[in-house]
Amino acid sequence: MTGFPDLAVAATLGCASRRVDLAGLPGEISVPGEDARAGGAGAGGPAPRLLDAAAQYATARRARVRPAAPSRPEAPPPETRPAVPPRLAGVVQRLAGDPELLSEAVRLVAARGLRLSPSTLVRCLEGADEDRWAVLEPVAGQAGAWLFAKGAFPGQRPRLSAQERWARATEPEARTAALRALRAADPALGRELLEQELAVVRPRERAALLPALEVGLGPEDLPLLTGQWEGRAAGPRAAARDLLARLPGSAVARQHEAWAAEWITVQRRLARSPRLVLGGEGPPDAERWGIPRDSAPARVLQVVSRVPPDSWPRILGLDVLELAALLEAAGTDPWPHLRTAALTFRHRRLASVIVHRPRQVRRAGDRSAVRPLDQDLLRLLERPEQERLVAQALRSPEDRWPWDAVAALAAPLPAAVWRAWLERLVREAPTGGGPTAAHWRMLLHRVGPADLTAVGAALRELTARGDGAAWRTPLHRAVETLTLRSALHEELS
What we know:
Blueprint: H1 4-13, H2 46-64, H3 86-95, H4 99-111, H5 118-124, H6 130-136, H7 141-149, H8 162-168, H9 172-185, H10 187-198, H11 203-209, H12 222-229, H13 234-244, H14 251-263, E1 264-267, E2 275-278, H15 286-289, H16 296-304, H17 312-316, H18 320-329, H19 335-344, H20 348-356, E3 360-361, E4 369-370, H21 375-378, H22 383-395, H23 415-428, H24 437-446, H25 452-465, H26 472-492
């Protein structure tokens, strides 16, 4: 059979040089003329018939190419849960810009066995990062998860694991946050990746990254920290030393306890209170240990901040509170160092004593003021004690700025605290003082479901009678947010 390549060669070389059998063409090619051989005497001669055959052949080839049969588009898996009603979907959308409130809405939707429709997910994800998808995933349903896997949501960015975030992070704060998240998920992997990083980065970066090891800190971290402690760079050495002091049995922890026994002597006197004698020689490498060499009281206080509070009975035969009283009697101020110890070793009893110490501060030319409650120490206390202290601070006229203390309380806020909040708000209305936008958010996030209606009604009353004129905008936003939260709980709880 004569094919198109035969025609092309004959046309290129010329009919006189190359014969082609036009009778052997496929049936759909019809060449006019009786002489079917190039060079015969048929109509028009061989050249026109050859070109005509080539043209027909090209047309026939194109005509035989048929488009592929349309494939049926891939469908998402069938849904197993019903979607939330449209009215509640709108509530979720309005709360989507606040991560805490969105998390609460997702928990309620998931607890009822419902899901969000893909259109609701699109609106909730507008302008969001991958973290918001992690929040919404439990209520995305089969279609939502399928669409996200396909990258179908507008502006969607890839969801990164903790390890991928660590690998992509460039700013110091982002790198530290990524490493902390990685340590929380997998301490061993976090330690391995950090060890690789410490081998190539500068000392300043090492010093910034090492404190992240406090998340999941354990005996397995001892070799890495010991290597940094024995290094020459001061920054990484200090960071490693502070972590090693928390590990019982480490050389650093043992050395601090030995110095405590050497530098503090308890003189027990008949019928009189014990007395401390602070002395001893500082170590020759005091700078390496971050300990003052020349001042015995300063050396002792530095050791106090690095020794677990529960170790003092074994070391000196004194409770940590007895030690604090004797250090004060010896003319030192041990409380900042004891605060460090309470936070480092998460010692609840010591934190309670420090928080309850008198907070009066005398200022020249001013009436007595009160230091703000220490949020970090408050978080170590039992819940009833936290609530009582925060309510007292809100009600105390001398407490100039009590709003920050509310941050130490986890949700839900007790009625005593939010009522004290509102009382303080009314009291400060004439002065224009009061909470900031961040403090308003704290209140709105932490009001419990049972109190949403009551708090909303109290805020509406403030607005109606003009007591909250200075905070008209945040008051309206607060009422709106509480109304949305209340609607969710009424429908889904």
